[in-house]
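Have a close read of the entry that follows and walk me through the local backbone shapes. See right below:
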Amino acid sequence: MWIPKVDRDKGPLYLAIADAIELDVVEGRLAPGTKLPPQRALAQGLGLDFTTVTRAYAEAGRRDLVEGRVGQGTFIKGRSPQQAIASAGLVDMSMNLPPIPQDGRVAQSMWARMANMQGPEATRLMLRYQEPGGALKDRVAGATWLSGRLPDVDVGRLLVAPGAQGALTAVVATLAKRGDVVLTEPLTYPGFISLAGHFGVRLFPMQMDESGPVPEALEEAIRTLQPKAIYCTPTLNNPTTRTWSAERRSEIAEVAAMHSIPIIEDDAYGALKRSPLPTLLELAKGPVYHIASLSKCLAPALRVAYLVAPDRASAIRVIGALRGTTAMASPLTTALATDWISSGLAFDFLDELRAETSRRQMAVAKIMPTGVVNSDPEGFHVWLDLPSGWPRGEFVARLRNLGISGVASDAFAIVEPPEGVRLGLGGASGVEELERSLTVVAALIKDRPALGSLIV
């Protein structure tokens, strides 16, 4: 008798059984015409109730995997594994990727610039170690990239790191040790949650309102928890898309300075803003570590981040941490980033990225139901506050069964996760594919499960 391998920790069990049927069809273990076990026999074999298996077979029928024959049982339908693979293809809305600009001229310029990177300098880059904090030429390029948000950056405080994660690793290693407390937004970047876990750093949430952290609550948290740092994404928070107000930024910078608490400002999406608000580093009267990565604002393959330390002494300490954790940013990737910035290509690419992001956000506004979606016209992800009656786990599972992947709030939460889901807009190949995906998502939001469907 066929007994599926069922992942009991991943979503509703009836969906897990249906997924197992689909996987075995795709991989050829269940050939067309194969008779599935009677529902009661499979329920006994899996140690589940009859209703769960009944729902699983019904779900498999909805996916066009099986057919019931009166008086005979349930059989695998006659379709090839290739057809099953095609129907199971996912649209990846789980990754928060910048969309690929549709203007071919930018792509042509990009390849032309890469072809020009030849000669003795390129050979030296491939065969030699580089300075952990970046060569002067690369730091100057970083200052140029940041100049729209941070004019007159002291390159002596600016370091080049292997992506935002590398920069965050070095800063956390500099500021905190195992058991120390760092304050952050209740829903925050999963990479930082993982990093804190690795270092044994305890994360506690700041109380938030629509404008950002509540200053009075932050003061109380500082007094009671004695944190070593505050980590935050004031512009286009991942995942909620919220941006702190200018007034609140000033207030939070003042509270942190009053208590001498360093701020780690993750400005991953700051370059997307055409009219950016002041950074915490600009407003700071106390120590702020400002991190701006190219991965989110240009391309994930450019694992380069620029880190501005509070002063030159702090920069030297961070260089030591970079040397001990990541050694250095990739010389070739850094050289490519410097070339793109110096030639102006990076800014042309950013303009195209902004335009494509706007087109995708227009699709969101046109298709998605009001009152559910949180978004920003200049960001390339959205946050769904699911309506009452929609558990996030079942929503993501149902979405996956419809061919779309998303991320439930559990990945971002440092406290009890809300019923929310993040969807990235950049993974679709174009606006048409995105519109098809959003139409599926919008229909699912309206199709709330009945109470009985939650009992498995």
